[in-house]
């Protein structure tokens, strides 16, 4: 059979991370590649109790189809949670549950972009956002970030150039807190400036915040959504890093017009998110389990971050640059300009260590000498051994 696939597959490429997964069955491989939470952070005991109670108390509803926007009591609990943790004030009607925040990214691409239209991202940015926006054939422009977050002056200049040519980007996608992949956090001044730019040019901001509660040191920085009084910010949250990613539950907080459009897209994707997961998340919030679980996860990950940073300082060659994140799950390593980390990956896999090369995090693979390392998943001894192996690989590559 000769299948006639749609043109879209010229734009959709497999992610390097997915391809790496085939190596994860090798028990010798130490992988800093995936973005997985450590299973030790899962609230197993609490989940068992909640699951039993959910089946006993709401079984008939929890196993039934739910509404597309999600369970009302969960949306009310979420409103309280985001107010408490992020200072965001939201009404039930401004919240929609999604199947992971990944689905929200796809839906947002779908509701805003016609093929070929521009969206702005950070450079580097989340690889799953690149896939989601690619599925709608959006043209992505990456604005560099540094250790203070996205370069908002460069952003404004870029927008002005677009306007001079009679076009305007459809939205600006940012992960301001503990960025994936860079680990950096956008400072308050830049957040305010970004919001000003959004208002001035009427371009919405998509604020993706899966890691905000995983802070290991430093003071919290207000979410952009908490400063938004005019519907400029579309906020994405998820239970993946504060409960468990297997439940596939995320949410969007935005102006009702946006929520209604996402609802329509979602009707065509999966009708509704998983009812059982929604009841579980509802109880997890209502009982306050979430507030007891987060500090445990934070102290587990803080130790792992410290260990990876210490090992890098000890074993990596002079001149290698890396970010020192205050939270989240990743750090970003920049090597000598002459090194191509995509090419180096083969050498790394032979040495039984994996990472994701930096090019994967640029819409057009612009930069070649960086890599993302995940510090949350591996056991402590593996973190040290993996960094030693990687140091060996980098040294070897520098000699070529
Ligand atoms: N956005 C970012 C920045 C992420 O890092 C992730 C997960 N790695 C997601 C969205 C998607 O998360 P989920 O679908 O599990 O909610």
From TrEMBL:
<comment type="subunit">
    <text>Homodimer.</text>
</comment>
<keyword id="KW-0663">Pyridoxal phosphate</keyword>
<dbReference type="GO" id="GO:0030170">
    <property type="term" value="F:pyridoxal phosphate binding"/>
</dbReference>
<keyword id="KW-0032">Aminotransferase</keyword>
<dbReference type="InterPro" id="IPR015424">
    <property type="entry name" value="PyrdxlP-dep_Trfase"/>
</dbReference>
<comment type="similarity">
    <text>Belongs to the class-I pyridoxal-phosphate-dependent aminotransferase family.</text>
</comment>
<dbReference type="InterPro" id="IPR015422">
    <property type="entry name" value="PyrdxlP-dep_Trfase_small"/>
</dbReference>
<dbReference type="GO" id="GO:0008483">
    <property type="term" value="F:transaminase activity"/>
</dbReference>
<dbReference type="InterPro" id="IPR004839">
    <property type="entry name" value="Aminotransferase_I/II_large"/>
</dbReference>
<keyword id="KW-0808">Transferase</keyword>
<protein>
    <submittedName>
        <fullName>Aspartate aminotransferase related protein</fullName>
    </submittedName>
</protein>
<dbReference type="Pfam" id="PF00155">
    <property type="entry name" value="Aminotran_1_2"/>
</dbReference>
<dbReference type="InterPro" id="IPR050859">
    <property type="entry name" value="Class-I_PLP-dep_aminotransf"/>
</dbReference>
<feature type="domain" description="Aminotransferase class I/classII large">
    <location>
        <begin position="47"/>
        <end position="388"/>
    </location>
</feature>
<dbReference type="GO" id="GO:1901605">
    <property type="term" value="P:alpha-amino acid metabolic process"/>
</dbReference>
<dbReference type="InterPro" id="IPR015421">
    <property type="entry name" value="PyrdxlP-dep_Trfase_major"/>
</dbReference>
